[in-house]
Amino acid sequence: MKNQSAADLAAVATLLQIGTELGLDHVLEPGNPFTIASAAEAAGIPKAGVAAYVETLAAAGLVVPTDDAGVFCASPDFAERRHEAGYLAWALTANSPLVENAREFMFDRAGSARVHPRDGRRVAVSSRWIGERTFYPAVLNRTRASGASRIVDLGAGAGGLLIQALQQDPSRTGVAVDISASACSAARTAAARAGVAERMEVVERPIESLIDDPDPIKGADVITACFVLHDIVQNDALCEAVLRQCRDALPPGGAMVVADAVSFAGGEDERRFSALFTYLHAAFMEIFLPSEKEWLEKFRAAGFRHVESHAEILPGGRLFVAVR
Question: How far is residue 94's CA from residue 144's CA, in Å, rounded to a whole number?
Answer without folding.
Answer: 31
